[in-house]
Design goal:
11 strands, 25% strand, 2 domains, Rossmann fold, alpha/beta, 9-stranded mixed beta sheet, globular, two-stranded antiparallel sheet
């Protein structure tokens, strides 16, 4: 099988975000970048599928500025076989990124299945996986928590609103976006980290995959940080006194009851 994974580089969850000077986005200086956590589930699933199908290979593809190659190598260190980087601007939106990824996938001789995380933790748009599938003309299952593989198809268990579970059977090739609970991602071993440094990461330009700035649908501006949270307030006294004071404060001060 020719297995592909679309991944994204995002700021570390512990990074303190700053807004750039013109308020058009975040200040990227000094940020620690990581593989988006939901993409880790996608990479892990691709590796497990490869290992169950001898002769298969896993290729990770990411679109973004030059530094994204480091995150591609993170996936290679987890065990992926090949890497592809499509260089697009830092300001690319979901449509431009998806079209770049789909363009890279279309250049491959055969695509049997594609994985991605259900969303990236930086913008939480949850759009790219579905857009890639639409641009490639293949079916997609999102927010997938379990997969059963068969010859030429996959049965996916996915979470839907209200806590319900939906089961879908899709013909291959298909796009599957992974949710937490699908598997337990592995840590990269030291030998694999060393091997990843030597693996080739193929570089593609926007022209190579048939995209341009004209494919960007959104332009964001005037970013603002949320206001600082107010300090908590402790209410002393016995439980009955505390309850009465809490109700009073919610009614007269917060004006929510």
């Amino acid at each position: 099988m020719n297995i592909y994974v679309c991944i994204k580089q995002v700021p570390d969850t512990e990074t303190k975000i700053k807004i750039n000077a013109d308020k058009s986005g975040i200040d990227t200086a000094g940020i620690k970048w990581i593989l988006s956590p939901y993409d880790e589930f996608a990479v892990e699933e691709s590796l497990r599928l490869r290992d169950k199908n001898p002769g298969s290979s896993v290729t990770v593809i990411s679109a973004g500025p030059a530094r994204v190659v480091d995150t591609v190598r993170t996936a290679l260190a987890m065990g992926a076989d090949h890497g592809v980087h499509v260089e697009i601007p830092e300001t690319a939106d979901s449509h431009l990124a998806a079209k770049a990824l789909a363009g890279a996938l279309k250049k491959e001789p055969q695509v049997d299945i594609v994985f991605a995380g259900k969303e990236a933790i930086d913008d939480g748009a949850a759009q790219v996986g579905q857009l890639v599938a639409a641009l490639m003309g293949i079916p997609a299952a999102t927010v997938v928590m379990g997969i059963e593989y068969a010859a030429g198809s996959v049965k996916c268990r996915r979470e839907v609103e209200g806590g319900a579970i939906e089961n879908l059977t899709l013909p291959l090739p298909a796009m599957i976006t992974a949710h937490k609970g699908l598997n337990e991602p592995r840590y990269a071993s030291l030998p694999n980290i060393m091997k990843a440094k030597k693996k080739e990461v193929k570089s593609l330009s926007m022209a190579d995959v048939g995209v341009s700035e004209g494919d960007r649908k959104l332009k964001l501006k005037n970013f603002e940080l949320p206001p600082p949270k107010q300090a908590g307030r402790l209410i002393p006294g016995e439980p009955a006194q505390q309850a009465a004071e809490l109700v009073r404060a919610l009614h007269t001060e917060a004006k929510v009851v």
